[in-house]
Amino acid sequence: MLSAHTVVLDSVQLDAKFLELPFDDGSTTFTIVLPNARDGLVELEKQIDKVLATTDFGQKYVQVSLPTASFKIERTLLETPLKTLGVQNIWSNSADLSGMAGVPGELRANRILQSSYIKADETGVEAIVDTSVELRVTEEHNVVADHPFLFYIKYKGIIVFVGRRVRY
C-alpha cells in the first residue's frame, strides 16, 4: 500500500477528490481523480472535459493510501491519433524519412506501439521514465483510494497521459 502526504482538491461540482502527487523532476505530476461514491467512476468519466480542466488544487494536504498497483498500458496502431495531430505521410511509400536513413520513399512507418508502465508501491509512484514521487508532510487528513478512479500525468502543465483503475 502506497501511503503519502499530498495536495488535495475536494470538488463539489464533480463529486470527487483530486490528489496530486509530484515526481522528483518538479515538472511532472501524477493526479488521481477519486470519485466520492464507490460506483461513481462512470459519472465522472461523462464529465472528462471538466475533470481534465481542473487546475486549482490549493494548499490543503492529506494522507493518501493507494493499494500497491502496476499499470501496463499498451496501445498499438497509433496511426489515427497521430493523423489527427497532423502527422500524415509517414505510413505511405512517399514518406520522406531520409533524415533518419536512406532516401525519400525508402523508409516508412509500419506500426507505432506506445507502451506505458506505472507502478505505485510503498516507495512512491514510478513511471516509464523511472521517476518517483517526492512526498511532502503537513497536517493530517486521510483519503483511501480503494475503489475505481481516473488518473492523469502532466508534464510542464500539459496532460500527456490519461487512464483509469477499475479492478481491486
Q: How would you sum up this structure, described in words?
A:
- The protein is mainly beta.
- The protein has helices spanning 41-46, 48-53, 79-84; strands spanning 2-11, 16-22, 28-35, 61-66, 69-75, 114-121, 124-126, 142-144, 149-155, 158-165.
- The chain has a domain at 2-69 and 128-165: Roll (Alpha-1-antitrypsin, domain 1), CATH 2.30.39.
- The protein is 11% helix and 40% strand.
- The chain has a seven-stranded mixed beta sheet. A three-stranded antiparallel beta sheet has the order 5-6-7, with no helix packed on it.
Note the main attributes of this structure.
single chain, 168 residues, mainly beta, Alpha-1-antitrypsin, domain 1, 3 helices, 40% strand, elongated
Spatial order of the strands forming the largest sheet? 8-4-1-2-3-9-10
Examine the coordinates and then state which fold CATH places here, giving the name of the CATH topology of the domain at 2-69 and 128-165. Answer: Alpha-1-antitrypsin, domain 1
Proportion of strand residues: 35-45%
Radius of gyration: 19 Å
Given as residue ranges, the uncertain stretches (5+ residues, pLDDT < 50) are: 129-140
Under CATH at level 1, the class of the domain at 2-69 and 128-165 stands as Mainly Beta
For the secondary structure, the number of strands is: 10
What coarse outline follows from CA principal-axis ratios? Answer: elongated
Please describe the biggest sheet, giving its number of strands, its sense, and whether it closes into a barrel: 7 strands, mixed
CATH superfamily of the domain at 2-69 and 128-165: Alpha-1-antitrypsin, domain 1
